[in-house]
Amino acid sequence: MESCGKLMxxxxxxxxxxxxxxxEGTRLHLFAESYSPMTLCILQGSDDFWSSSFVRAHSEFLQxxxxxxxxxxxxxxxxxxxxxxxxxxxxxxxxxWKLSPHLLYYRYVTAWEETFDGRHDAIEGFxxxxxxxxILAEFGIHGCTMTPHAKKLGIPLVVHFHGHDAHRDPxxxxxxxxxxxxxxxxxxxxxxxxxxxxxxxxxxxxAEKIVFNPYGPRDSxxxxxxxxxxxxxxxxxxxxxxxxxLTILAFQxxxxxxPQATLVMGGHGELLEACQTLALALGIDSQIKFxxxxxxxxxxxxxxxxxxxxxxxxxxxxxxAEGTPVAILEAGxxxxxxxxxxxxxxRDAVIDGETGFLVEERDIDSMAEAMIRLLSDKSxxxxxxxxxxxxxxxxxxxxxxxxxxxxxxxxxxxKSSVGSRQ
Length: 422
Known about the structure:
Helix content: 40-55%
Number of strands: 15
CATH topology of the largest domain: Rossmann fold
Mean pLDDT: 87
Structural class: alpha/beta
Strand order of the largest sheet: 1-9-8-7-6-2-3-4-5
Radius of gyration: 23 Å
């Protein structure tokens, strides 16, 4: 296994810097003058604006020309248009078939489109038309469905895992064989936490293919200066894995000592209505602000008032887990101490007792105590927040994160070019 940049053992010391500066002589070091233009196809999954900010950052900031496929296999779309209807390699034959009776068209065209060959025909047409050099699959699920097509076309594949695609066990049961085929073909497999890397190895990914490359917040977060008011901030999806209802239950206990405190919750998801109902049932709805989904420019002002950031991530009964939550990285970069759980990559992102407080999953009493301690001591908030800022600045760098992926993509392309010449 490798950390992005310096080659190093995976089991590094708990306090060691695990995102070291790229060093000359390592295989991931990039020199701008040696970079040549290329076309990268990104399998992005959801086309929802509110999808993960780091996925959007990849399509915006990675080098080269990017063409993005959205949606879920086999219904892949480019710029809102289904590739199965606009990128076939045999479009003329299909047009001629449209002159035939409907039953024959369905039998020989529509039914064929649902076969592997039919799906491959559309993917091949898309890749050829855009002259794709490398495929970057966001999420393992998208990577494994694309693997047989990439292999048949001889296009190298880099797979970026993010969270549920490595940890949601009931989902993975049906994909495990395809995951192993993907691990065998992929040039590199990107992990965002040590917890995730361990899981990928257990699923059969060769350790030497795993590259540990945690996300990083955008630079604008480092400029934030909070006034550390009696505001507790929580931004994230309202889902089982983030357990926002447990944050609310912990905050109810906080209000017993700080009745003037406010919990600001931003985001949306399937548990939003349940959480709003819970606040009403507990009689604390006046102290909780539910802001719904937020754009970047709406998020930044919220960090300028908060005294801390909270997120009660848990592993649900069905086995899911976080990667490294970007909101926690952003909060640390913004100078806020973080109160969270000992869960997945959070254990690396938050240094317990120095940049925030970590509690056991589902321990709402300890979470409440941590929030009370910070609300009671604003100098502690400020000192922890500044240490958090430096920790994130040193270890979670968005430019380094992107450069690492650029390096893996370039390496995959070069290996493919060498192989095609042999």
